[in-house]
Design a protein that fits this description.
The complex is a heterodimer of chains A (185) and B (134).
Chain A lengths: L1 E2 L2 E2 L5 H5 L9 H14 L10 H22 L1 H11 L14 H20 L2 H29 L3 H5 L2 H25 L1
Antiparallel strand pairs in A: 1-2
Helix pairs in contact in A: 2-3, 3-4, 5-6, 5-8, 6-8
Chain B lengths: L4 H8 L14 E8 L4 E9 L5 E9 L2 H14 L4 H5 L3 H8 L6 H30 L1
Helix pairs in contact in B: 1-2, 2-5, 4-5
Amino acid sequence: MRLQGIVLDLMDAFDALGIKPQFDLNLPEVEARHRSLSAALHPDKFAAAGPSERRMALGKAIEVNDAWRRLRDPVRRAESLLVRYGVPIGEAVEPRPSQDLLLEMMDVREELSGIRRAKDQPALARLSADMRAKETKALAQLSLGFAQAQGETVKLQSLLPALGTLRYFRRFFEELDTIEDEFLS
Amino acid sequence: MAYSEKVIDHYEHPRNVGTLDKEDANVGTGLVGAPACGDVMRLQIRVNDQGVIEDAKFKTFGCGSAIASSSLATEWIKGKSLDEAGAIKNTQIVEELNLPPVKIHCSVLAEDAIKSAIADFRAKQAAQRALARG
């Protein structure tokens, strides 16, 4: 990651915030931790410090921000955990999605396109609620999987399809949000 | 990241978007997806009695490169025999669309979609022949 000319080899998100690596997090607690670290690393606190110390504080602040962004999103949190435990992720190494999942996603995305054309607000709300319920179930499954894996690589690897499913839900909701905004404007 | 002109052209004017009847015995359907980005791609072919792909349609929910790759794929396979279409390599798509390394998987997806559509068509034909023999 390159930001303002600083090249960062981003450290583990859990380590960056100093919290225990696990999927189920108390997010308000993690957020408070992020806030206090950010405040301690604020440039104002380093106004009198030398250039190298200021650079280090800035780099650390960026790391802390990035860690919070990764941990608050369940998909990126799962990715962070898998990488931490040495499970490779990415297009080239993850299992192909099941035909059932692809059929379902093709169906709901086409339904969404239809709703957009028809400007059908109630149908959008119904589909959204329906998909949120499914997403919640998928998240609970992933959370259970992480709890049962206890850091074992083989068990963690078996969670990749569930993670893939959640990414499909995320894409779906990204499109749904865009359409919701369109309807509102 | 900037898209190449050819990607933008396919993205803005996708060729052959649509659906063929997947129950039709002469239609093969390939449905593939990229788990890391949540893309889903459907590519369908209609094959005539001479074994030539006379029509192809696609529907892709994904990034510009995924849409462009599948749009290009349908253009290329129309008029080709199944073997010719099945020989199309993702690297040809990468070259034609100037895809950057991070988007190479989109071309892989398009190649997979062609191959699964062909496999689906051949499986259907085999099933029909088996039925006809009774």
